[in-house]
Amino acid sequence: MKRLRKAFQIILPLFLGVFLCWFAYQKFTSDQLVEIGRYFAKADYFYVGLSVVLAILSHLSRAYRWGFMLETLGYKTRYFNNVMAVFGAYLLNTAIPRSGEVSRAVVINKYEDVPFEKAFGTIVSERVIDSLVLLVIVAIAFFMQFDVLKTFLLGIIPFEKLLIAGSVVLVFFLLFLTVVFKTNMPISGKIRYFLKGVKEGIFTVIHMKKKWAYLFHTLFIWVMYLLMFYVAIFALDETAHISVGTALTAFIVGGFTIAFTNGGFGSYPFFIAEVLLLFGVTLTVGTAFGWIVWISQFFMTLVLGGASFILLPVLNRAK
């Protein structure tokens, strides 16, 4: 059953990505497909490379910021292990959505002796902080492009179904907590111990001494994310003219596809093209742009994430 669930977690996102690829490209004629290929050929890859560099800087900053939280727990981890755990996590997320968060905690537990549950708690706390920043960016985008975003999101997001699903999940979660904290079963004790460690990791941000440094790196990470996407628009003449508001809107939609799928495979170019179409960018241009951005970031993740998993045991040989 466990293997079946893991297989389902891998296959379903990949199937969705393949389906979206088919759905997007079956609408194109052979001439349009050739046109998309021409956009790839004439793209200015200086800006694509600059986009990749900015993404790497954001990941390096994320690894450094993580160290503040781990240090608050009493663990002085080596920076190169933090970096490789972060890059490895992004690579795993392209296979199984959100599995990277678990792998980061596993890596830092194995090579730095940080308890898994505490390390995982710091990652949960990190995601909460990043989600708050993202909400601010979404609010700014809504202010700048309210009518377009409202129409687009209402057309693709089944809010009623999500509300029902969220309510069901919340009920089961509350039942789960009731069983864990109201029973004396051996498994309940182990879960309580795990949750206590997670809680300690989550609240490190409150007790952290280097709060200003943490805030600086948080802002730096998101500025790099935004610049990473924005500079990429100059890779094509057809997208170089789009406004900051349009780029911000596309960035947000693309970010959500990455967060809720396996690294945005298939879904990222599809939704980027659909958003840009609302602002007068043709479907072929939007599709080519989406794939150029996604492929460049995926290649960076594949190379650095793969290298991280290879180097981790080598650089920690004594461990």
From TrEMBL:
Enumerate the UniProt keywords alphabetically: Cell membrane, Membrane, Transmembrane, Transmembrane helix
What Pfam family is a match for this entry? LPG_synthase_TM
Q: Give the InterPro entries listed for this entry.
A: L-PG_synthase/AglD (IPR022791)
Where is it localised? Cell membrane
GO cellular component terms? plasma membrane
TM ranges are 7-25, 45-64, 132-156, 162-181, 212-236, 242-261, 268-292, 298-315
Chief localization: membrane
Q: Organism's domain of life?
A: Bacteria
Q: How does this protein lie in the membrane?
A: Multi-pass membrane protein
NCBIfam families noted in UniProt: flippase-like domain
Alphabetized PANTHER family for the sequence: UPF0104 MEMBRANE PROTEIN MJ1595
User: What is the name attached to this protein's record?
Assistant: Uncharacterized protein
Tell me which species this is from: Imtechella halotolerans K1
Lineage in the entry?
Bacteria, Pseudomonadati, Bacteroidota, Flavobacteriia, Flavobacteriales
